[in-house]
Design brief:
This protein is α/β, with parallel strands linked by helices. It is about 55% helix and about 15% strand. It is globular, with a radius of gyration of 16 Å.
Length: about 210
């Protein structure tokens, strides 16, 4: 088998326009016949999708922060084995919608569990599967929610309120500052096509496309 594939992750606050970018990138990769897979966290496989259901279910409001962080890490462990590793081994580009930075932004910074705890429970991922590049779509929660006309009432996390999402955003900014070589910020205050042009530019500059 040839070279190992590249691992690209997308991050951002809820409603930052990530899904649209992932759709545009998928269309581009299909049109250009670039071997790839798209996947997401939490989820991306049978067991990890079942964990996702527990995590995002509005009925589980009493879940402790530690339980939440551990379930994200558990879903990640399974997902890496089920989907990410096989595709990388086949030389495919792996595009993942959220990864460990989401756990850092949401659980370590916003929930307040701290970076040390979250890094520790994600050590298996951090040591073996560092993304080649992480694209952070930079849009504040105020701007994101204004676009979305408010939160989805069935989504446990989106009900967490603006101050929580502001902490998530601040967490992402800290991650981006700490690892400027891996994390590239793209302004989300542009048209979807302009954001996508930036994404393509980054992936080309890194030799990924
Ligand atoms: P999803 O509906 O996929 O949101 P989005 O389209 O914004 O990605 O829900 C994923 C939610 O899970 C999102 O609110 C972020 C959260 N999350 C964490 O809190 N920690 C994590 O490690 C991951 C992967 C996601």
């Amino acid at each position: 088998m040839g070279n190992r594939g590249k691992f690209i992750t997308f991050e951002g606050c809820d409603g930052c326009g990530k899904s649209t970018q992932l759709r545009l990138l998928n269309e581009y990769l299909v049109a250009n016949e670039i071997p790839h897979i798209f996947t997401r966290e939490p989820g991306g496989g049978k067991i990890s999708e079942a964990i996702r259901e527990i995590l995002l279910n509005g009925k589980n409001a009493e879940m402790t922060d530690e339980c939440e962080a551990l379930l994200y890490a558990a879903a990640r462990a399974q997902h890496l084995k089920d989907r990410v590793e096989p595709a990388l081994a086949q030389g495919k580009l792996v595009i993942c919608d959220r990864y460990v930075d989401s756990s850092l932004a949401y659980q370590a910074y916003a929930r307040g569990l701290g970076v040390e705890f979250v890094e520790k429970i994600n050590a298996f991922a951090l040591e073996k599967y560092r993304p080649d590049v992480t694209i952070f779509i930079d849009l504040t929660p105020e701007e994101a929610f204004a676009r979305k006309h408010g939160a989805d009432e069935n989504d446990r996390l989106e009900q967490a309120g603006m101050s929580f999402h502001q902490k998530v955003y601040d967490g992402y900014k800290r991650i981006a500052e700490a690892e400027p070589n891996r994390v590239v910020c793209v302004s989300g205050r542009q048209t979807p096509q302009q954001v996508f042009d930036d994404v393509l530019h980054i992936l080309r500059a890194r030799g990924i496309l």
